[in-house]
Please model this.
Amino acid sequence: MRLQIPLTIILVMGIFTLVTSFIPAKPIADVNQMFRNWYIGIITFFIFLGTFNLARSNAEKIKKQGRDWQYSIILLAFLGIMLFFGFYRGRASTEEGQPFMYLYFNVQFPLESTMYSLLAFFVTSASFRAFRARNKEALCLLLAAVVIMLGRVPVGTAIWKGFPTVTEWIMNYPNAAAKRGIRLGIDLGLISMALRMILGIERSYMQ
Amino acid sequence: MGVVERLSRLDRRYIFLAVAIAVTLPIFFPIGLPIEVTAPVKQLYDVIEDLPERAVVLISIDYDPSGAPELQPATLAILRHCFKRNLRVLVLGMWAPGVPLGMKALEEIAENEFHRQYGIDYVNFGYRPGGAIFLINLGRDVHDVCRTDVYGTPVEDLPMMDDVHSASDIALVISMSMGVPGSDQWIWYYHARYRGKLATAQTAIGAPRYYPYLQTGQLIGLIGGMKGAAEYERLVQTRGLATIGMDSQSAAHMLIIGFVILGNFIFWMQKRKR
Amino acid sequence: MREPELRQLAKPDRDTVEVMRLKLIIVAAIIAVICNVDIADASTTPQVADSISILPPRIISLKDTPNDAGTSIDIEWELSPTESLIPGMIIEYQVLRAPSPDSTFEQVGSVPAGTSTYTDEGTIPNKPYWYRVAAVGREQQVVSEMAGPGHSVMQWFDRRRIGVAIFVALTCTLVMVFIEVAKRKGKMFLRRLPVFDAIDEAIGRATEMGRKVLYIMGQMDVDDPQTVASMSILARVAERTADYGTRLDIPCVWPMAMSMARETVKESYLRVGKPDEFNANDIYYMTSDQFGYVAGVDGIMMRDRPAANFYLGSFFAESLIFAETGYTTGAIQIAGTAEVDQLPFFVVACDYTLIGEELYAAGASLSGDPIQIGSIRGQDVAKAIFFVYIVAGVVLKLFGINWLETLLKID
Model:
């Protein structure tokens, strides 16, 4: 029973969702709507579960003084600070000049931008290390990449006015065609996997 | 150890240093190369130009601070264009950390630059959870899924929303997106059901995947990365952060091309040696 | 199912309109001369424009909006002739509705000048409604003749999605047929991807080095199919780590994915008979913030130096940051995603990459279950059919035959 009940729920809900995506009629649409609202409610609840889990595991680490436990203190301190400043004046906490907004724009914003900007460094090092013209196909890719890089910045246009046009052509035709091909395969794989789940064939996550 | 061998084992910290210099120097010594406007950006600009006055444009802030350097300039340029054209703007977002970015953009453009009135010329519904499901419901009944704005004001008390009830009341949707939920969801769940005009602004890394949608007409415009934002800034005749950043981007791209050529030269030399 | 109704409404006397139009032109010209303004400038001089009467619009049709729940009616009207004569004089059109011809008409919506259609989305199925459209100027408005009754009708099938329905039905049928074939036949051949052997190799190496295995499920929650696909691969990876007694570290982006991962790993440890070695604390929530998570995972890689890194699921801008950091720590890296843009980064920086649909097939393939493998065979046959369909469509299109192209078209 422990296995059959969830499998039945998956089967019924899976078929219902699939079939009703083609039925606009109001009674069916309303039931669909109700399920969607349930889902939003469930994921909202899980956010609390995640925060609780985060706090508990880090508190345990501090208590046991496990490896790098000092980082957990910083994490919990900032979790508390952001929560406090986010709640202490209700909705007004997110108004301009409030501590929450100060922390957001002066701590979170630069930290996240910094992490994202690492990409520029890693793209360069990865290109240097791995972007090699080992064969004709790789050479084609390499040339296309160089053209696109030049077509995407003003310096490319300064070198040759045609770079943006060639770039747009590469993006619109070879790029779009390849993406569609891969996409089609992905979508078929998706349907197959969804069916395995709906029919209860794939249930590795169940006890 | 020969030069080639030494170069092949180049410590990547030297590469990082070179990138840092290439990106930083042009900020202090700008070159100001001219920016060419590409078709996908111009298409969006033209659509906004052709919208009737007071039409409603929905801007979805689907990014967080990490994507802000690329996407915030585009948001500012689009807002500037919308208010210049006397359009009404509805802002919301599916990424919670993006809410302050939307608020800041509205404050900068709507309040300070164009002196527009909140609730009449623009509204901000802030973070909306639920991703795809939220979008399906939004197209059906805006008031049902946006009952209060970001300040807690009931939707009934916002005069702008009196005639904005469903997807058919929204003339254009622009998804400023850096991931999921974002433009994919707008295309698959909103546009597929409710049609209407939809455009997107993407980080440079995400832009290529949206070209097929541009071809099929599911998207009417595409702003790709900081370059796209700089193009839009040029169209609305402002010199914003994207335009300023273009020299750095030019230098970074040239440096990457340089390293690719160097890498291949090393590869070729080593192959010859073998 | 009732067909959408089209009600052609009685046309007003065309002569009357023409006479009114002529009169209006004359009046406008006289006023223009008196005020010494150009007709083209009338739009910028509302005091002149508003002294002229606006001509009414004319409702052409009331149609049930097709393919909906029966809660809307499409109204189409002919623009007021005033729009073309004096541009800018009309600001907007207001749509008015009444439940009976004698009732008061109430505004249900408005559209800017130049728009001749509106969808009234607040109707009750099969209930009659009467409509008027008002052309609104700055100081005056004129209402069209009444039109109606119009009904909205509930539909039981969205015809715009017939192409999708055929596509899904065909694929589902083929998958199910091949599942049946696999049940009877017992075994089916499926090309073994090199990455499958690499999984064992990577976990074996981690065991030898006494280091842990890091498993990243991507940025999305369990409502994303890639996360679910990742979960089925995780089940196989967890079986191996349980078998070898290697620690499996899974930082999660979403709490719901964390709960599901815990169940998956727990089940795997049970399957190999080592339930006591399962440690729930190794599967934990980190943060739902994309780059906060990147910072956290990079920290784990640099501090703990896992010997094998798995990146399987939905990845975005963080893909290269993970893969390059992992490369510097010397870990064996196995990646897989259906995010096409991120594939080049994984291919460049990782040892093995599952490309697109391989991610969805990997769990089934690794399980060795003939029924699951049968579903992949069905999917492959569907792909072959669609490939033929696409090629035939292109060839026919070249000869100017479009029916194959439009057969599966959405809308």
